[in-house]
Amino acid sequence: MAKLYTKINLYAESNGVFNLDYKKDLRLLDLSDGNGPKIVEWNVDGLSKPTDEQLESYETAGNTVEAELVIDATRRSQYGTWQQQMEMIYKDQKNGTTTFKDHCDKVRSDNPKE
DSSP letters of 67-110? Predict the structure, then answer.
């Protein structure tokens, strides 16, 4: 299930708002009653507070966004540091090899995006 803030961000972006400030524009609260967090304050200029139905319509897109974030984080960790990448590139240039390209291709194939 997509997180509430992911669905809120998708709702806002689809309505032309790209930089929500969760300390100024809105406030979420989880009452620990098993129903998850709710929007308790909404102060986004020019955009009405979304209904539960509107937010629910972003469930599938939210799941996709969150899955891609996990893939991106995994890829970043597997690519190695920028120093390691530069070393591979340098050695490829010096030796006429494709180690860096092969490494990147493997990281991508091991962690495909849908």
Answer: HHHHHHHHHHHHH--HHHHHHHHHHHHHHT--HHHHHHHHHHHH
**Taking Cα atoms as reference points, which of 1, 5, 6, 63 lies closest to residue 38?**
5
Query: Who contacts 63 (Cβ-Cβ below 8 Å, separation ≥6)?
Result: 1, 2
Burial of 6 (0-12, 13-18, 19+ CB in 10 A): buried
> Is the model more confident about 114 or about 20?
20
Q: Residues 6 or more apart from 81 whose CB is under 8 A from it? A: none
Give the tens place of pLDDT for each residue, 16-34. 999 999 999 999 999 889 8
Give every CB contact of residue 41 below 8 A, 6+ residues apart in sequence.
26, 27
What is the pTM (predicted TM-score) of this model?
Answer: 0.77
